[in-house]
Amino acid sequence: xxxxxxxxxxxxxxxxxxxxxxxxxxxxxxxxxxxxxxxxxxxxxxxxxxxxxxxxxxxxxxxxxxxxxxxxxxxxxxxxxxxxxxxxxxxxxxxxxxxxxxxxxxxxxxxxxxxxxxxxxxxxxxxxxxxxxxxxxxxxxxxxxxxxxxxxxxxxxxxxxxxxxxxxxxxxxxxxxxxxxxxxxxxxxxxxxxxxxxxxxxxxxxxxxxxxxxxxxxxxxxxxxxxxxxxxxxxxxxxxxxxxxxxxxxxxxxxxxxxxxxxxxxxxxxxxxxxxxxxxxxxxxxxxxxxxxxxxxxxxxxxxxxxxxxxxxxxxxxxxxxxxxxxxxxxxxxxxxxxxxxxxxxxxxxxxxxxxxxxxxxxxxxxxxxxxxxxxxxxxxxxxxxxxxxxxxxxxxxxxxxxxxxxxxxxxxxxxxxxxxxxxxxxxxxxxxxxxxxxxxxxxxx
Length: 446
What we know:
single chain; alpha/beta; Rossmann fold; Helicase, Ruva Protein, domain 3; Zinc Finger, Delta Prime, domain 3; 22 helices; 8 strands; disordered C terminus
């Protein structure tokens, strides 16, 4: 078969049955990377040996084998297989399906209800499953890429067991790739010289389905050598992948994970890692205003008075992002991210307000002393409001010894400046004031 004919054969087969589907594992032994679940001593194999299987939620990244494992479980149970996608579930349709399951169950046959992307089901749709699970009408297998505790109701989770699938490692992807190349050689008569294996693995994003789809797409445009091999080079992959989009969901758990890594990198003073996570968010379609708002929060929480310029710079970044938009806003965000990562760090202000709020919530007295009250009218002045108040600007260094805490509340220290950056100056100033106010040194402050 000629080069063009074979390529046409691949293209013709793809819409009907993609390579990823043709290579879907037909047994637990073929599943890669999930030995803790389906290996010889895996928990799922133990359930099946006992002849029973609980309702489960399979949680893991895309392309790790959730659907494959679910189908293999159904085959092993010899159960009636009912399947729905989370995007297609309606309460009425679901109840009709459960009535069908009752009829099957009444004939003595087990029923597996598989719901892909179960996190897309609404709470009423999830609640519609509860009675069937309680009565054992169906064994539910749901799959999700989102943390079940965030997206599924407690009532549903209490009736299921959650098992996490592990992200595929490079060794698993290499095994899958070799399996695919061998299958193409033996089943399709297609020999492949893969010169861009590392690039192909990188572009897959640890997703088995993406890996096989990229391989299939590359074969459809690959050149054939004189020896009859299809040669896949880096430029071949570039022809089928205009851009390697990062795995990022602006509304899912990946969103929270990447944002967390971004903030922790800035807090940890690693501008390079922070800029990488910033790039992941921007390329994944994150709202740049959201990123700017998080930087404002970080500027106060993690830098504070160690660098007083951090907060106004972050606020200015939000204003700039709102006014110029993407793609230019990336430059503003990069500048501020790099600066904040390089700033001296202090969370003293954050700790101070948390401690003060804790005291207020615990019921600390909050009666304002008379000398601190506002004598807004002559009548209030006659009652003693404002009497005895000492105006600090009339004193040397604009500081006077005066009680500012509520009546009956002993003075306490919330704000403890660090020795980082500009905060060291504040620390020294407060040290002198503490000595005057309490007659003690810094180490003995109340």
